[in-house]
Amino acid sequence: MREKQALTTGEVAKYCGVNFRTVIRWIERGHLDAYKLPGRGDNRIPVDSFVDFLNNNNMPIPEELDLGGHKLVLLADVDDLSADVAACVRRAGWDLMVTSDPVHFGWLISQHQPAAVAITQMQYEVSVNRLLKDSDAKDVLRICISPGGVSDTAARDGWIHLSWPTDQPQFVLQLTNNVAA
Prior knowledge:
Residues 7-57 form the Helix-turn-helix domain. InterPro entries: DNA-bd_dom_put_sf, HTH_17, SinI_DNA-bd. One of its GO terms (molecular function) is DNA binding. Pfam families: HTH_17. Helix 4 (80-91) links the parallel strand 4 and strand 5. Helix 1 (9-16) packs across helix 2. Strands 5-4-6-7-9-8 form a 6-stranded mixed sheet, sandwiched between helices. It has a 3-stranded antiparallel sheet with strand order 1-3-2. It has 2 domains: 6-60, Arc Repressor Mutant, subunit A; 71-180, Rossmann fold, CATH 3.40.50. It has helices spanning 9-16, 20-28, 47-56, 80-91, 102-112, 125-134, 168-180, and strands at 6-7, 35-36, 43-46, 71-75, 95-99, 116-119, 141-147, 152-156, 159-164. By secondary structure, it is α/β, with parallel strands linked by helices. The chain is built from 7 helices and 9 strands, in the order βααββαβαβαβαβββα.
C-alpha cells in the first residue's frame, strides 16, 4: 500500500523530469488534477490522478507509486507493432518492459516476475514456456501477437494467439481479466 495520498508540484516535477512550473501549467490547463491547500494555496496532486496522468501519456510509473501494478514483459522487434502494443499496455495501466533480445527477455522475467509476457514471434513459445516453468512462474499470462495473422483466443500450450490490430480489444480484455484475477 502507498504511504502518500498526494504529491507536491516539486515531487511530480522530479518524477517527470520537468520544472515545477511545467507541472503548474499542466494543472492550470486541466491536464493534471490537483487541489489547493487552504492558507498558502499550494497545489497537491492526488497520487491516483498522477498515475492516471502517467498512463495516459505513456510514461513509466515510479515503483514507489505503483500499487503492485501488473508488469508485462514484451519480446518484440522495434517496429510499429511493438510501439502500438506498448501504448496499449500502458493505457491499460500495466507497467511495461520491452526488449528485442531473447536473453534480456529471460533476464527481465527472472528479475521482475511479470504477471504477463507477450511475444511477436511464435518461435519463442517453447523456450519461454520452459523459462517460465524453470522460474516457477506457471500462472503467467502468455500472449503471442502477430501482425494480421490468425487469432486463436483458445490457449494452446498456455498461449493466447492474437492478431494485431484486429484483436486489440481482446488483448485489453485479457489484461483487464488478469488484473481482476
